[in-house]
């Protein structure tokens, strides 16, 4: 019985993947580099745990006081950094894949705990389903949020977001 419970998340993920095709490449590729060189950087600007989030938009200096460098890049429309349901960091482009514009960005609906587009009102699960669409035109067309890679470095908790 415990083996069955352990395999359940994998079975659900495979079932979702086999039902339809997810297009998460609608947002144009763009450079991404946000670094957390120390534990103090991560504590100040990262996500503290499960179901938490932060927006990174270099052109708007978000978050305020983050030490952006000339090498820093925040994707096409910005980065949504969040902690999944287990507290592991995940990253997505903030641009809605339906709208495909850098200035139309999803935001976290704090009550529903989903990412929502302010223009087309599509919603996305960013905490457990890797940016898959839940409702709206994105769900009808199978458009998911563009995902970025989050890598953890050595013992000093060095983290880099890149694609």
Structural topology:
Layout: H1 2-19, E1 32-36, H2 39-45, E2 53-56, E3 73-74, E4 79-83, E5 89-93, E6 107-109, E7 114-116, E8 123-125, E9 132-135, H3 136-141, E10 147-152, E11 159-162
Antiparallel strand pairs: 1-3, 1-11, 2-4, 4-5, 5-10, 6-7, 7-8, 8-9, 10-11
Q: How many structural domains are formed by the residues?
A: 1
- What would you say the CATH architecture is? 3-layer Sandwich
> Quick one: biggest sheet?
7 strands, antiparallel
Bulk shape: globular
The named CATH superfamily: Rieske [2Fe-2S] iron-sulphur domain
Name the structural class.
Answer: alpha+beta
For the largest beta sheet, what order do the strands appear in spatially? Answer: 2-4-5-10-11-1-3
Mean pLDDT: 86
Q: Rg to the nearest angstrom?
A: 16 Å
Low-confidence stretches: 7-18
Count of strand segments = 11
Please estimate the helix content: 10-25%
Structure annotation, total helices: 3
- Proportion of β residues? 25-35%
